[in-house]
Amino acid sequence: MRRIRRIREKIVLHPIMTFVVLIFSVVLLSGILHFFDVNATYNRVTSTGAYATELVYVESLLNVEGLRFIFSNTVSNFAAFAPLSMLLIVLIGFGIMDKTGFLDTFFYLLTNRMSKRMVTFSLALMCILASIIGDFSFAVMIPFAALLFKYGKRHPKVGIICAFAALSCGVGINIVMNAVDASLIDFTLSSAHLLAPEYTLNVYASLFIMIFASIALALIITSVTEKIIAPKIGRFELDEDEDDSIGLSKREKKAIIISVFCGLVYVLIIGYNIIPGLPFSGNLLDNSQHFYIDKLFGYNSFFNQGFVFIVTFLFIILGLSYGSVTRSIKSHRDFCTSLSHSLDGVGKVILLILMASMFIFIFKATNIGPVVVAALSTLVHNSGFTGIALIILTFIVSAISTIVLPGTAAKWAILSGNVVPVFMNAGMSPTFATIVFRAGESITYALTPMMAYFVLYIAFMELYSKDDHDTLFGNIRHLMPYAIYTLILWLIILIAFYIIGIPLGIGSTPAL
User: Fold this and answer.
1) Phi/psi at 503 (nearest 5 deg)?
2) pLDDT for 399-433, tens place per residue?
3) Which residues contact 443 (CB under 8 A, 6 or more apart)?
């Protein structure tokens, strides 16, 4: 047994090398699929409201042109890779909060009178609701969860797994509409208007089912974390320089009050500037848009474009004000050192993100994802299924599609042209079709390395690993129980709402 274990340890690949193998595999696969002329078609709705058939085919990178494309675009793609810039900027904010002791004090006060299960439930629910801020939630909540568990004397990897699972499995749960939902509505309505030109969809159409799903999912994630993940990961051994005892002095209590007050003032200022119609308000909105959701999260919205820095600046205010009172920051040199604290030793993380960005970039260039999704879209269209069978088929199609094409809007652009009319012909509403689609993608969103923010999960697992035995697929296995229980939960919810006819939201039901 020991010999077998040693052999396994020798062949275990580091996540960086796993991405290298995946890159070469995708290039080779693209050449093979292109040689056999693999392609697919799907129906989309044009701006004039008519059907148009789109052909998508696999692009080969296994040639001179493909290699030239890879080498000439790798640097620019890495520089523009959103998770990298988000992570580095957010770590600056977390660095000063951590170095000054703000997080130590804050998390102590936060968890001192709460049970472990309540802390886990609160984290899971926060992550699910954080979908309102879109993908940026991954860059904020994963390091937050790691430090929350670390200062709560639990293994940071348990917090990382819990946060990433909640963010990913809750990707389709949006109590308040965000920018992704706004784009999905356009595709849904365009497809629905082919059969019912008068059909409308309000922003609260899925409110009831989303509230129920968010609470139920948070409870499930809590149970999986406490009963399966925490015992498996075990205890976290503190470094020698980390004091295991915590006590708050009068200066620390005063510092936390002042820093939180400064943070609240900043949040109120930002909040006032995203409220339209008040004197001197709305400065962070794109007032050229008609709907508030587009004003807040539109591409030209200052709030949307500057959200990363807005949050990071909040963290800097909290850390700086705390450090100034506790005297952990005595000069501008201390301030600068604190800002860079969390960036120490992230070289391996940056290399990991580089390889992940290359893999995602190359996979997208092959067009394999859209081809698979287009073929699955045609499967739904030709299935002839109705009722529960159609719900389950669409659910499975969405889950499979997410593995090769994680982008929600990109998937729905291909699927909606077939899925929405099929649902309507089966007597089910376009709103319900969209909800089934979003539920399906939440099952596999956490399991696919093609998802850009998956690498943040791997990177932070690597940061808090005490050995070199962590692997990419090993970290995926931690997420499998969450995916399985989320699948069961969503199928029960969807079928129950459909059979009983429970309203999905205000003015919306599963039936057409």
Assistant:
1) -60, 135
2) 999 999 999 999 999 999 999 999 999 999 999 99
3) 169, 399, 402, 483, 486, 487, 490
3-class DSSP assignment, residue 1? coil
- List the structure tokens of 275: 């409220």
The answer, yes or no, to whether residue 164 has pLDDT greater than 60, is: yes
CA–CA separation, 284 and 390 (whole Å) = 43
Question: Residue 43 is encoded by which pair of tokens?
Answer: 């129906």
- Assigned domain for 509 exists: no
Contact assessment for residue 92 and residue 343, using Cβ atoms and an 8 Å cutoff: yes
Could you give the CA distance from residue 115 to residue 41 in angstroms, rounded to a whole number?
53
Q: Quick check: 167 pLDDT over 90? A: yes
* pLDDT tens readout for residues 432-474: 999 999 999 999 999 999 999 999 999 889 888 776 677 888 8
Lowest mean pLDDT among 92-101, 136-145, 280-289, 311-320: 280-289
Question: Is 50 contained in some domain?
Answer: no
- Sign of the Cα pseudo-torsion (125, 130, 134, 139, in order): negative
Report the C-alpha gap between 74 and 487 in whole angstroms: 36
- For the record, the structure tokens of 179 come out as 């920018």
| Length of the chain as a residue count | 512
Q: What is the pLDDT of residues 212-270, one digit of tens each?
A: 999 999 999 999 999 999 999 887 765 554 554 456 788 888 999 999 999 999 999 99
Instruction: Return the structure tokens found at 408.
Output: 């929600």
Residue ranges making up the domain that contains 305? 2-45+57-500
Q: What angle do CA 301, 275, 106 make, to 5 degrees?
A: 90
Residue linked to tokens 């997410």: 402
The mean per-residue pLDDT over the stretch 358-367 comes to 95
Q: Which is more confident, 239 or 116?
A: 116
Counted domains in the chain? 1
Answer whether residue 51 is part of any domain: no
Side-chain half-sphere CA neighbours of 186 within 13 A: 12
Residue 336 binned pLDDT confidence (cut-offs 50, 70, 90): confident
Read off the amino acid at residue 285.
L
CA-derived radius of gyration, the chain: 24
Measured in degrees and rounded to the nearest 5, phi and psi for residue 56 equal: -125, 140
Dihedral angle over CA of 222, 224, 229, 231, nearest 10? 90
Q: CB-based burial of residue 435 (10 Å sphere; 0-12 exposed, 13-18 middle, 19+ buried)? A: buried
| DSSP assignment of 62-86 | SSHHHHHHHHHHHHHHHHT-HHHHH
Q: With CA atoms as reference, report the closest residue to 453 among 76, 142, 146, 130.
A: 142
% pLDDT > 90, the chain: 54
Residue 167, burial from CB neighbour count under 10 angstroms (0-12, 13-18, 19+) = buried
* Contact criterion met (CB below 8 Å) for 217 and 486: yes
Contacts of 100 (CB under 8 A, 6+ apart): 319, 320, 322, 323, 326, 328, 329, 338
Q: Which residue has the tokens 């809750």?
A: 170
Q: Is residue 511 part of a domain?
A: no
